[in-house]
Amino acid sequence: MTSPSQPLQPHVLQPGVGPIRSATYLPAEPGAVLWGRLPCETDSPVLTIDPGTEVTIDTISHDGILEDQGRDPAAFFARFGVDRESVLDDAVGLAASDYARDYKADGPHVITGPIRVTGAMPGDLLKITVLETLPRVPYGVVSNRHSKGALPGEYPKHGDIVSIFAGVEGGIGGDHGTMPRTLGAEHSVRFPLNPFLGIMGVAVRGDERPHSVPPGPFGGNIDINLLTVGSTLYLPVQVAGALAYVGDPHFAQGDGEVALTAMEASLRATLKFDVLSQSDALDAFGAIAGPLVETSEFLVPTGMDQDLDEAVKNCVRAALALLQARFGMDAEHAYAYLSAATDFNISQVVDIVKGVHARIRVSDFD
Known about the structure:
- The chain has about 375 residues and is an alpha+beta fold.
- It has helices at about 75-80, 90-95, 280-285, 310-325, 330-340, and strands at about 25, 35, 45-50, 55-60, 110-115, 125-135, 140-145, 160-170, 175-180, 185-190, 195-200, 220, 230-235, 245-250, 265, 265-275, 290-295, 300-305, 345-350, 355-360.
- It has two domains: about 25-275, Acetamidase/Formamidase-like domains (Jelly Rolls), CATH 2.60.120; about 295-365, Roll (Endonuclease I-creI), CATH 3.10.28.20.
């Protein structure tokens, strides 16, 4: 167990406390969260909004509340020197509740939602723009557990779970994470923080809630670290109203997320929800079968599959289709351009369904 390298600030973003950017605020309170599953078509919305609405949403990190960590975040974080006032009340309340969760069958993630966006229909694209991501606490956790991650069978070296405590340099608003080099050492490793939501999605058809771990055409646990402030995610709407949701907040994550988790820590995120009609979506991007990210610099199509090779192929196909629809390239020239100028990054290899994303520079087509 390691302690933080600096005193923790007591003024964490408890529910309803601190800056709330938007007039519409969705706390992660009982009845507004799901734990381990994602929304489906028959779930009732916890909030209904019109397109163009900004919503400030509290999210809860799963690390620190899970059963293999004691399902008691106050006690868990106390082992790392965090006092009770610096542990989120909504995380403590959820862990202590009688929430019906099957630890062996369900995923670990807590999501806030679903949010109904009026007028969104299958065939449309839901456009989610990230306006703000505020750390709710000045610390996080990186975990490897149960022979999962990129090296199952090799890690964890000892026991079923290893949870590494990571601090935030400069307190809650700092811009670097810190970590010890060995158990019990001072925090002498520094790395940049780039907060983002690992889970952003829309509900699936039918009455069965999907497991929270594998991503899909609906989005979900896509873990694309480009989805920081200023970026936009486009998702093919599956059901009327979209029934959007977010969760799995991260302070930092490398492409691949090889140990199993990123630096998991709770965020207060402000998002803007818009709807692109089917015709406008086709004009802008062509036919989109899965999540598409847009940043100030890149268009980022995605590919997914349990087989990483197939995920790469799916991403290349999505990139080819995008280049043809958006920039008028023929297939052969688009294929050549991708090979010469586009990076294909591994989003993650730890969520059963693996993810790959391509970074297509928009400035190349100015």
